[in-house]
């Protein structure tokens, strides 16, 4: 893996930085929300699944290993794809997980190509309606779309909102649970259900639950370079001001079956 300069580390967005530290679960609902997402996805062996914005490939690997899916793990960021490729290979899943370059706003896949499409913490980075329409487009009629997104669990203070959306994740936009339902419904999806919970990815409890056996290696890496320590020292106090107000919403939806075709 290429070593980044201190200046490059300073410029990383928080998610890429966590990936560089070796963190495996990089979304607001943590492993618990992925467990639930996979339960709702109910993927069957041999089904074709897209994990868009796959990060370091953790959910894609689970889809292949635990559910027998044929997975496309796609991400716009070369750094994430590099780590996903290494993790897929280390997991011995290269024959069932293909790591690809794709942008959620314009997916390079034909209409109705996938049985299920997953986007964990991706849509909120881009024009949400366009991204949701793309997720719906590449899903087969009767197929499932699942996403996790950030939401405010409590109305944030002005300071918490400015720190999180202005400094930690500039450019990110997220909505209320009702607005997320509207965005996915507006993409033509049906049977939309949502579940929500607290943001625990960067609490001590959430970190240990998410990373399990990898936790010591992530902590060791975080203190292995002054550039990482400085980045942590910048990030953590800001995160802790926003965390009390942050949550996640898990959206589960279905693309309507084609007229006259029975669903599974
Ligand atoms: C918060 S991380 C989530 C990673 C992974 N889904 C997970 O849950 O661990 C967001 C991911 O979305 C990717 N991403 C951001 N914008 C994207 C876009 N327009 N198309 C595809 N991926 C994108 C980022 O590179 C990053 O890997």
From TrEMBL:
Gene3D superfamilies listed in its UniProt record: Vaccinia Virus protein VP39
This protein's record includes keyword Metal-binding: no
Top-level taxon in the UniProt lineage: Bacteria
The entry's keywords: Methyltransferase, Transferase
Residue ranges annotated for the Methyltransferase domain, each copy included: 49-143
UniProt-listed GO biological process terms: methylation
GO molecular function, one term: methyltransferase activity
Name the record gives this protein: Methyltransferase domain-containing protein
Taxonomic lineage: Bacteria, Bacillati, Actinomycetota, Actinomycetes, Propionibacteriales
